[in-house]
Amino acid sequence: MPPASSRNRTSLSRLGRMQIAFLIVSSLVICGMIGAAVFTISAEELFGDMGETDEGDLANFQDPSQDLIAEQQTVVAENPDDLEETLLLANLLGNSGRLSEAIPLFERAISLAPGDAEARVSFARALADGGMAADAELQFIRALELDPRHQAAHYYLAELYRMSTTPRTDEAIVHYRQATEIDPSTLIGERAATQLASLGGSTPTGSPPATPS
Length: 213
Description:
By secondary structure, this protein is mainly alpha-helical. Helices cover 69% and strands 0% of the residues.
């Protein structure tokens, strides 16, 4: 058995890696949710005059998440049945534009925990971001079959419907409404309420009329 100091260092290293990965994934989630509030800043305003930028510096630039992905790939190779580690790697790859590599990992995660709604929501979001709308819809629906009150599943399914090539507004309203009703105090609940109001959907289309008291 390794000495306690060695085990502690390993645990701290893993904790630090997980925290960094969580921050990367969380920042991408938040950025995606505030798309309605995007504003434009020119490169010159943000970085100043780039006329003297060394092209070699740009060519040698490496996405810092790549080192984290490489480390996580090693962890998953050593722990192929670890759901948390597998999902973390899948999310990192998906958020880095490497969906073809992420899909088998999401599928493995679902096979490890077929009743885990969160895994399916993560998979669905990656598929949606990759333009695979029909597959994303299927995973969102399966997640809601497992957990009908999964707020994020309702919200992102509504987003998928709203942004379809032919917007499916009525269906979007239904799911924005449900996301709002689950918990209006969360960031997702607030965003759902905003979208619902913008669509004029105070009452979901197709809902049964209230029964008189």
